Amino acid sequence: MVLILLFKSIFRSQRTLAQIEHSVSRQFILLICTFDQDETSCKNYEKEVTVLASAEVGRWQLLGYDKNEHLRVRVGSCFPPLDVACYDRYGNLIPFPSTPKVNLQFKMGKGTLIGVKKTKAGLSSDERTLRIKDILIESGDLDIIRPNYEGTMLLCPSDESLSISIPCKVIPRHARQVLAHPSMQSIQMLPGCIVQELKLEMFDAYGNHALRGSGVLLKVEGFSIKDQMGKKHKADHDGFVHLGGMLKVTAGFNRNDWASFTFEFEKAEIRACACLRRSP
């Protein structure tokens, strides 16, 4: 006697193939066929069975994410929410057994790790999607990954049994601090002279150098800027704006004993003053 076992999936009219593929369990009909070699007849027996996904977690996977693109955000701002799915060791989608505690770190060049702050995690109603939101990175060390500001977000459960690596780009915020080199007080300023050496070092609120191309609008009193009034000056790749040879002192000792800059950034203004000094 010969015994033949066959499996046939059950598809119900109200369910699509995609829904079947993403089910935790699948139903099959077990067909048992027996026949004798000396007989031409065949007897069939049908039995409905349920095949469950494995309870062993194989991997987490980020949903709705293009692996060829970097997630991009300014330091101090939140990333868009991340949706994560859980699969068993055979690649079947399975629900999360509970809301996992998630660890997030931002890895920069040379292995520098920054802990990610203020994250929140919660499961969807069907417990198959973990949504992580309010992902906030605060750091004054972005100079390490200049000029492209690229790093990797590492996402893993608290036991670090598995992980997801997400390419990211974290760029500085808009400039909020300025240092003059040399300092305004040390520059010898006389009426009619041209300031030969002056550069402005710009930082964001976290102390990162300004992003290349960041603009600053200078408003001056007691100076003139040849052919550049009302023009934005842009930072170089090191976060400096170079003004050497561009400023002429117009203030005089008799009518104005000081000169000033007003640095206008996006949504911010900084003013710096310098006293005119007579030659000894």
Secondary structure blueprint with pairings:
Elements (H helix, E strand, L loop, with lengths): L1 E8 L7 H5 L3 E11 L7 E10 L4 E6 L8 E4 L7 E7 L4 E2 L7 E6 L5 E3 L4 E4 L5 E5 L16 E8 L6 E8 L5 E5 L12 E2 L3 E5 L11 E7 L1 E3 L6 E3 L5 E3 L4 E3 L8 E8 L2 E8 L5
Parallel strand pairs: 5-13
Antiparallel strand pairs: 1-2, 2-3, 4-6, 6-7, 6-11, 8-9, 8-12, 10-11, 12-13, 14-16, 15-21, 16-20, 17-19, 17-22, 18-21, 22-23
CATH class group of the largest domain: Mainly Beta
Mind telling me the C-alpha Rg? Answer: 33 Å
Strand content: over 45%
**What spatial form do the alpha-carbon principal axes imply?**
rod-shaped
Structural class: mainly beta
How many domains? 3
Number of helices: 1
Account of the protein in words:
- The longest helix is centred in the first third of the chain and has 5 residues, at 17-21.
- The protein has 280 residues and is mostly beta strands.
- The strands form 6 sheets. Strands 4, 6, 7, 10 and 11 form a 5-stranded antiparallel β-sheet that branches. A 5-stranded mixed β-sheet has the order 5-13-12-8-9, with no helix packed on it. Strands 19-17-22-23 form a 4-stranded antiparallel β-sheet, with no helix packed on it.
- 17% of the residues are buried.
- It has 1 helix and 23 strands.
- It has 3 domains: 2-52, no CATH class; 57-171, Immunoglobulin-like (Sandwich); 177-275, Immunoglobulins (Immunoglobulin-like), CATH 2.60.40.
- Residues 1-7 and 10-23 have low confidence and may be disordered.
- Strand 8 (102-107) and strand 9 (113-115) form a beta hairpin.
- The protein has one helix spanning 17-21, and strands at 2-9, 25-35, 43-52, 57-62, 71-74, 82-88, 93-94, 102-107, 113-115, 120-123, 129-133, 150-157, 164-171, 177-181, 194-195, 199-203, 215-221, 223-225, 232-234, 240-242, 247-249, 258-265, 268-275.
